[in-house]
Amino acid sequence: MKKTLIALAVLGAFASAASAQSTVTLSGMLDAGIRHQGTATGYDWNMGGAGSAFNNFTLSGKEDLGGGMNAFFVMNHRFGIQNGTINSAPQADGSTTFFRNVFVGLGGNFGDVRLGRMLMPLQEMNGNFDPWYGGYTVASTHTGGITATIRAQQAIYYRSPSMSGFSVHAAIAAANGQLQAETQNDFGSSAPAFATKERPTGFALNYAAGPLKATVAYDRNYADFKTTGVYGQYNFGVAILNMQFEDGDGLTSAAGLKEKVKAFSIAADIPFGAITGKVGYLRYNSNLAGKDATKFGFGGEYNFSKRTLVYSDIGKSSGDRLTDAQKKTQFDIGLRHKF
Q1: First-residue to last-residue Cα distance in the chain
Q2: What pLDDT does residue 81 have?
Q3: Among 40, 77, 149, 311, fewest CB within 10 Å belongs to which?
Q4: Cα–Cα nearest to 225, from 265, 195, 264
Q5: Pairwise CA distance, residues 41 & 327, whole Å
Q6: How buried is 309 (Cβ within 10 angstroms: 0-12 exposed, 13-18 middle, 19+ buried)?
Q7: Are 269 and 240 in contact (CB under 8 A)?
Q8: What does the pLDDT average to over 239-261?
Q9: Which pLDDT band holds residue 249 (cuts at 50, 70, 90)?
């Protein structure tokens, strides 16, 4: 009997050690709201999330390999809360389960290396400098990346450790299999369809210390269209000021004229206890005549807790670049919960 108890205790110790070395986490977000948006003939009400990224769940895990090394993975799935369907619009067949990010990697004192489908450096970083989290409500004044690669297929991504506040991100992806819809933004800049000829590459130099954050980033997409971005954020305490500037190549449509675009935004988070006000301005300039745009955004959030909030926003755009529907005032109100 004593031998049996000793054996069970030893097995239990090994099991505890194994479970301590490897963890799997389920996390995600649910966002349901009502939007009032312009159409070609008037206005329409619809239900959905503030943005597709706000309805997702993630399976992630990490294993301690010893000697300061670890292995990890991320599998992120998007869905439409209004109907439960897979949200993977850029895919031709609409069947990609883990559309947002799916990768495996190794980490250590050297930083980490990731392999799979994931955001490229410029697009990963620029959403950190938008009060509306990278463009997911009607009020967002996010510059959008012009035609920088959003997510690359068959990508290899390296992230350095922080060195006195500085870190470096670098990525490269296969030339084949990239998607034209992975480059288009809300202001009509796109890259040629079916022009898969270059390996998407990207770099970012980041700095974060105290109240200041800054990033300089570069992206070359599959069509050899280049985008450079400069981003900054400063926390004054009474407000968090964000700035975005991007300069890059684009097309007015998939078969249109090539253009040079400069996009600039300035926006702020203004906290009042549980309430956070948001305000922003965006200017989108093209070297082509009649292809400019301007947008103002206003909004706010009320936080019931660290995981649950309600939000409401208003966005107003103008400019010859936009359709009549896009230039109509937009409104949203919704509820968001993280888990």
Answers
A1: 45
A2: 83
A3: 40
A4: 195
A5: 13
A6: buried
A7: yes
A8: 89
A9: very high
Tallying the residues shown for the chain, one arrives at: 339
CB 296 within 8 A of CB 315: yes
Q: In this structure, are residues 245 and 283 in contact, taking their beta carbons and an 8 Å threshold?
A: no
C-alpha distance from residue 49 to each of 70, 130, 142, 238, 316 (Å)? 35, 18, 17, 29, 19
Alpha helices in the chain (DSSP H): 2-21, 121-126
Residue 128's contacts (CB-CB under 8 Å, 6 or more residues apart) are 134, 213, 215, 231, 233
Strands (E), the chain: 22-38, 43-48, 56-66, 69-78, 101-108, 111-119, 151-159, 166-173, 201-209, 212-220, 226-235, 240-251, 258-272, 275-286, 293-303, 308-318, 330-338
- What average pLDDT score do residues 156-176 get? 96
Whether residue 104 contacts residue 82, with contact meaning beta carbons closer than 8 Å, is answered with no
8 Å CB contact between 117 and 88: no
- State the pTM of this model: 0.87
- Evaluated on CA atoms 298, 304, 307, 308, the torsion sign reads negative
Mean pLDDT of the chain: 87
Q: Quick check: 159 pLDDT over 80?
A: yes
Q: Could you give the CA distance from residue 52 to residue 88 in angstroms, rounded to a whole number?
A: 9
CA angle 251, 127, 171 (to 5 degrees): 75
pLDDT in tens, 210-226: 999 999 999 999 999 99
